[in-house]
Specification:
The complex is a heterodimer of chains A (250) and B (481). With 250 residues, chain A is of the alpha/beta class. Helix content of chain A is 38%, strand content 28%. Chain A has a single domain (2-249), classed as Rossmann fold (3-Layer(aba) Sandwich), CATH 3.40.50.300. Chain B is of the alpha/beta class and 481 residues long. Chain B has one domain. Helices cover 25% and strands 35% of the residues of chain B. The chains are: A alpha/beta (250), B alpha/beta (481). The structure holds adenosine-5'-triphosphate and magnesium ion (MG). Chain B: This is Fe-S cluster assembly protein SufB.
């Protein structure tokens, strides 16, 4: 599904990603962990096509196709979804209106008509119930005045609405209370299938109890310094990152 | 694809004026220039009674002595008032014809404007009085309105058919000497709309007028007079377009609203006069005086969506004369390229317990300048007057400007006045967020702008809100879902 080879990316001549290799196959769940500032969000943004970051070397491929020339919206149409670490506010635009626009734009890109209002309402009802989202919430301005946890839950609601092939969840767990974490994680699990893939970026083992990863990668200084199975997350929880930092410094 | 500020800006620049075409209809045009003879000739051409001719001449005398105002935050080459023709009427127009007889070329033009009369007829809910180059050419729904005693016709017709109303109210809110452009308008106004709602009547449909400047080098001077008698209600919409031309066209209208005791007038404007091309050449100069008078318990709401004109100078105002009267001003002003807008409102509180609300949304892009100028005046008699003002500006790029000039004059200690102002910028992060959800940059801008303007868009009558959204899209090059 996703193949990243020797990816280097920089912003304002500052290199942030320094040769990342990662392959994610359909049906897999990958976790990316690593200390603050190691480049996790940058990697997510580069996969999503944020042009602020310049790819200086290497490539990102989605289903065998190089994405270099592909705009962020086209990547979205191809099924890339990013749950933002810091979702932005759009005053005056309701969650519903935003989702309606997003869904119809993706449909348009695939040569389809707008989704009939009836189907749209049904989809909204179904997904908001799955994530236990109050309907009143959906008529509020996107992310404006949302609590940290509400923002994250709303990101996953959008993911559920868009049913992406590749979902990248950037610290979706931070800010969620214990119940919300369970609800959101269950939501993600329900959306998982053998045809799609999930990358979860997190600092905490806790989320991975719910969304069980097939692989765990540790990012440090813009490189993946260690990969392993789900036990690696437990090991990190126990030992922290120092031992890895020392290992790579050598 | 594009989403950096640089690219965003470029995208905004490429907008073309959608309604820029010139309809080849034979016009009856006066020679350029302005003097007493021209004023008399206009009056004669329109077969006006003597009192009207005298009223015009009085205005002309006042105008000659006046100086063009310079205080607005706009810069432009002043119009040469002797180089303008003050009257241009389509020769084939005949107000007595039925709609089916209307010049097919005119109908074609309405179609281009998206307001085909056929369509309007089908809509069954909107009565349209179209002023094209000065003369009212088609009036629909007159009958339905007449049954309720509502008068909706061109001002020329009103001068002839309802002189008592015109004599009583014309110039009662905006006197001839009010300002330079109002005086000019009073002398030479060519046509416009007149509306009278009798006591206790709720006008069953939105009344709508479309203004349009067609002929080269003609100034357009409409005069609108709306009278809502006691306990009546009317919602009125005015829409404007002008073909694109290189030279600047002058538009100096006067609108007077009179809301008698317990009456309510909702006046909505969608203005997209030609703003000039992207180098700042051509475009309409829009100098308009709009003012409403509220008697006891009356209410006037001005709602405007301004996307056009090279230079706009416009302050729809309310004189809250009667106790408990209410004035409202909801405005969206979009400027792009080299457009300049200096708009706002005046709320003059004279009566007790008067209330006013001002919501102004300014959107600036390109190298444009967008100013809000508002005056809230509370007189000494106006006990317990209240005002709430909110001015929000949205900027796109780094070369445009937004300015807010709120003036507050309070002569009564019981007044309560609140003013809020915000300035925001469409951020790359917002655009990227939309892009990531599959929404391209153009659509993202439209979405953000719409969200920003929502409070005001919501004040427009349904069918016009849709149209206004369309205009916002055109002027900022985008589309809305
Ligand atoms: N636009 C930018 N300009 C300059 N530096 C940037 C920019 N974006 C990111 N960086 C820097 O790149 C590095 C990696 O940032 P990134 O957000 O990818 O880290 P992260 O691994 O997601 O951290 P966290 O766990 O705190 O979310 C940081 O040092 C950050 O300051
Ligand atoms: Mg991060």
């Amino acid at each position: 599904m996703l193949k990243i080879e020797n990816l280097h990316a920089s912003v304002e001549d500052k290199e942030i990603l320094r040769g990342i290799n990662l392959e994610v196959k359909a049906g897999e769940v990958h976790a990316i962990m690593g200390p603050n500032g190691s480049g996790k969000s940058t990697l997510a943004s580069v996969i999503a096509g944020k042009e602020e970051f310049e790819v200086t070397e290497g490539s990102v491929q989605l289903e065998g196709e190089d994405l270099e020339e592909t705009s962020p919206e086209e990547r979205a149409h191809k099924g890339v979804f990013l749950s933002f670490q810091y979702p932005v506010e759009i005053p005056g635009v309701s969650v519903t209106n935003f989702m309606k626009t997003a869904i119809n734009e993706s449909r348009k890109a695939r040569g389809l008509e707008d989704m009939p209002a009836k189907d749209m309402l049904k989809l909204i009802r179904e997904k908001s119930e799955m994530l236990e989202i109050d309907r009143k919430f959906l008529s509020r301005s996107l992310n404006q005045g949302f609590s940290g946890g509400e923002k994250k839950r709303n990101e996953i609601f959008q993911m559920a609405m868009l049913e992406p092939k590749l979902a990248i969840l950037d610290e979706t767990d931070s800010g969620l209370d214990i119940d919300a974490l369970r609800i959101v994680a269950n939501g993600v699990n329900k959306l998982k299938s053998k045809d799609n893939a999930v990358i979860v970026i997190t600092h905490y083992q806790r989320l991975l109890d719910y969304i069980v990863p097939d692989f765990v990668h540790v990012l440090h200084n813009g490189k993946i310094v260690k990969s392993g199975g789900k036990e690696l997350a437990l090991e990190l929880e126990e030992k922290g990152y120092d031992w890895l930092k020392q290992e790579t410094a050598v | 694809m594009a989403y950096t500020e640089e690219e965003l800006k470029k995208e905004l620049e490429t907008k073309e004026y959608e309604y820029g075409f010139y309809t080849d209809i034979k016009s009856d045009t006066f020679p350029n220039g302005l003097n007493e003879e021209i004023v008399i000739a206009i009056s004669k051409k329109k077969e006006e009674p003597e009192w009207m001719t005298l009223w015009r001449l009085e205005a002309f005398k006042i105008w000659k002595e006046m100086e063009e105002p310079e205080w607005a935050n706009v810069h432009y080459t002043k119009p040469d008032f002797q180089a303008i023709s003050y009257y241009s009427a389509p020769v084939k127009a005949d107000p007595n014809k039925s709609l089916d007889d209307v010049d097919p070329e005119l109908l074609e033009m309405y179609k281009k404007l998206g307001i085909s009369v056929d369509e309007q007829k089908k809509l069954q809910n909107v009565a349209v009085d179209i002023v094209m180059d000065s003369v009212s050419v088609a009036t629909t729904f007159k009958k339905t309105l007449a049954e309720k005693g509502i008068i909706f016709c061109s001002i020329s017709e009103a001068i002839k058919e309802h002189p008592e109303l015109v004599k009583k109210y014309l110039g009662s809110v905006v006197p001839q000497k009010d300002n330079f452009y109002a005086a000019l308008n009073s002398a030479v106004f060519s046509d416009g709309s007149f509306c009278y709602i009798p006591k206790g009547v709720r006008c069953p449909m939105e009344l709508s007028t479309y203004f349009r400047i067609n002929q080269a080098g003609t100034g357009q001077f409409e005069r609108t007079l709306v009278i809502a008698d006691e306990d009546s209600y009317v919602s009125y919409l005015e829409g404007c377009t002008a073909p694109s031309r290189d030279e600047n066209q002058l538009h100096a209208a006067v609108v007077e609203l009179i809301a008698l005791d317990d009456a309510e007038i909702k006046y909505s404007t969608v203005q997209n006069w030609f703003p000039g091309n992207k180098e700042g050449k051509g475009g309409v100069y829009n100098f308009v005086t709009k003012r409403g008078l509220c008697e006891k318990n009356a209410k006037i709401s001005w709602t405007q969506v301004e996307t056009g004109s090279a230079v706009t100078w416009k302050y729809p105002s309310c004189i809250l004369k009667g106790d408990n009267s209410i004035g409202e001003f909801y405005s969206i002003a979009v400027t792009n390229n080299y457009q300049q807008a200096d708009t706002g409102t005046k709320m003059i509180h004279l009566g007790k317990n008067t209330r006013s609300t001002i919501i102004s949304k300014g959107i600036s892009a390109g190298k444009s300048q967008n100013s809000y100028r508002g005056l809230v005046q509370i007189s000494s008699r106006a006990d317990n007057a209240r005002n709430f003002s909110q001015c929000d500006s949205l900027l796109m790029g780094n070369e445009c400007g937004a300015h807010t000039f709120p003036y507050i004059e309070v002569k009564n200690k019981t007044a309560q006045i609140e003013h809020e102002a915000t300035t925001s910028k469409i951020g790359e992060d917002q655009i990227f967020y939309c892009n990531q959800r599959g929404i391209d940059t153009e659509k993202a801008i439209a979405l953000i702008v719409n969200g920003f303007s929502k409070e005001v868009l919501n004040k427009l009558p349904m069918e016009f809100a849709v149209e206004a959204q369309k205009l916002l899209e055109i002027s900022l090059e985008g589309s809305v879902g």
